[in-house]
Structure formats: structure tokens, C-alpha cells
Amino acid sequence: MSTQTPNPNASPAPNVDNAPRFIPPPPQTPRANRIPPPSAAFQGVSWFAVALGGLTFAYNAWNAPLLDVNGRYLLVIAFLALLAGAVTISKVVRDKEENIPVTSTFIGAAWAGVLVPFFIMAYWMLFDARIPAASLATIAMSACLCLFGAIAVSKNVRDLECAKK
Fold first, then answer.
1. What is the pTM of this model?
2. What is the architecture of the domain spanning 37-164?
């Protein structure tokens, strides 16, 4: 009777346990993990738009001729509420695009947060303000620039976080 010692370098005999198995692909990663980070140029332009729009708005709201204190406060508060509402709407839109559940109550509140300050500012500028049209136009354009910049910055922040994951 001969006893053979098993060769440790030899591969084991094929059997069912050692047969290659089908390994399913990993689950589909969410869209957020496939987003490349924003370029440094776009990030810089976004922050520049926020800074330039905000500073121009503040300067024109402060130095607008014939604008009383109540008008200044109304304008600044409505502007800040409009910025917050616009960033919230951008979040809602992106969440829906990425199939993240968003309640209809939150969507309605976000739209109200944009529309109410917008209509307050528009009504005030069109019917109640006693300042020259050039000052109103500068205030409106700087608000739009800052609004664009705030939305772009919120997108950049979210894209950077998604790219880190």
C-alpha cells in the first residue's frame, strides 16, 4: 500500500464547489456617483456671480434715491427669501431627477418660497417704488445675477460631494 502525500501546488480536482460561479454585476450606482466634479473655472465664475450680484444689489439698494427704510428692508428681505427659495427649487429638481423621494408638500412650499418673494419684489418695483427706472433695472439685474450664481454654487457643492463618494 502506497500512501501519497498531496501536492500542495496541484490544483484540486474540478467539482461542483470549485466551478466558476456567475457573479451578478454590482447594483446600478445612483446617478450621483457618476457625476464628474465641476471645473475650477465654473466654480470660480459661480462664486464671482454670487459676489458681484450680491454686492451690486446691496450697493444699489443702499444708495437708491428716494428709497425709504421700509422699502429697503422689504427689498432685502424679499431678495434673501428669493435666493433661499431658488436654491431649494434646484434641490427639489435634482432630487426628483435622481429618484430621491420628495413630498408634494415640500415641492409646493419650495415653489411658494420662490414665487411669493418674486411677486412681492416685482409688484414693489413696478407699482410702489418711487426710484428711477435705471436704479430699478440695476437692482433687478443684480438680483438675477446673484440668483444664477446661488443656483450654480449649490450645484457645484452637491457635485463636489457626489464626486468624493
1. 0.71
2. Up-down Bundle (1.20)
